[in-house]
Amino acid sequence: MGNISNRYAIVGVGESERSRKSGTTPLHLALDAARAAIEDAGLNATDIDGVMNYNTNDSCTSHELATYLGVRPKYVKDIQGGGSSTEMLIGDAISLIESGMLNTVLIYRSMNGASGQRVGRGYDPDMLQTALSGGSFIMPYGSASPSQWFGMYATRHMHETGIRKEHLGHVCLSFYDHAQRNPNAFLHGKPLTMEDYLATPDISSPFNIHDSCLELDEGNAIIVTSAERAKDCKSKPVYIMGMSLRQTHPHVHYWNDIDQVAADYVGEELYQNAGVKPEDVQVAAIYDCFSWVVLRQLEAYGFAPRGEVGDFVAEGNLRIGGKLPTNTAGGMLAEGYTHGMNNAIEIVRQLRHEYKGTDRQVEDCEIGICTGWSGPDIAGAMILRN
Amino acid sequence: MTTMTYQKPVPLKDQDNKAYWDAADEHQLALQKCKDCNTYAHPPGPSCSKCGSKNVSWEHFGDEVTATIYSYVISYRPFLPGFQDDLPTIIALAKLDQVPEVKIMCNVLNCDEKDIRIGMPVQMIWENITEDRALPQWIPIED
Ligand SMILES: [Zn+2]
């Protein structure tokens, strides 16, 4: 990526209600989120000239969303994707604005993740065998859930580094604690203790239900524009200092070398593009489809040396008040799950100091990191500032 | 009918993996190898996943195949049909002794979930799952 540092900004963020049974369609949820983001930015819907979304065939199209916002944008784009897609589409939006094609792009993710089609459940096994690369080498052995796929990585990594189950627990406890400060978090009012955590039986070792993200019905939206145009917006812009994106493993689900993850290759370029170091980062949104994924990324992005990540989280460093307050709205483990976008929304709000004067605000934070994880094979990350 | 109906997914053969599953049905291991970069490709594909070469061939390793457990998960829920009668299920990656760059995903049978560990030596066996199909699996062997 060329030098786009500080020349693009996120100017609007918004979300729908979150629930386990929305009683409505992803289109309605997407409209709620988009209207909230447009209002947040102080724009008119007709200022949006590009609309993009990612989905797993579980959502409405950008065309439909634009239609019912009453907008006829120059450009619409729908991609198949999950984690890292927020970052990748923000990258696309920047490129299209840089080229002069567009001015202001709305990116959304909307899904009935609980009441509709659920990740890793309810699919026909024969369809999965053909749909996934190498699927016939996976499905006959009963492996069809991300908890099983990522568990394989976690077991190996924990074996090599000495990370233990209670370290996974510290990730969960930190995010559950944040959810108790966020009235909109799905698990607000449901605190978690280490005793409860360790007493909960595993679903797929080493993960129990607390290690796994909440699949909910929810829509999220983000608006990206140029720094120049951001001046006309009502909101305080959050600038993109740098990004990096990468695919590594040959197969999407048959991971042979489970010692490497794509995030290992993203960190260096990310910090170089942004012109900062890990120690400059004051607040984080780390993709947390599973607790362990956070530990592995903290290692990859240079927040703790290999082998010391467990101690880093046990010391409370992910909590508000710690060295790297992470997923401060509760994350996908305790706030909600939209394949990463809800964490990106939260870090924007933190960097705007939107919670100033409350126990949710990371005091005086200026620089934040937002990471995506589409599995160990694809990573995307960005560094943001206020 | 002499066998009970097999409920779990049966590996689907396609043009890229047929040689592997045909060999498995004969209780043999076959692996795809790239003649240009000498990498074994597992799972197999239309070309080498390392260098992109179309110059790939098949090598046979017979029926005496050993490995060590590289990683595993213990699954306590059935995410696919057939596994509900078979919990907990150990799903593992077995690193081949003969070709350490290849790790084969499998179940470890005849193994209590408390005993599974990384580095455990295992041997490939073939479960006859239908009248004409066999599934490569692994069982622990003595250290
Ligand atoms: Zn090759």
TrEMBL record, chain A:
Q: Provide any one GO MF term from the record.
A: acyltransferase activity, transferring groups other than amino-acyl groups
Domain Thiolase C-terminal intervals: 247-375
| Domain of life the protein comes from | Bacteria
Under the heading CDD domains, the entry gives: SCP-x_thiolase
Any idea what this protein is called?
Answer: Thiolase
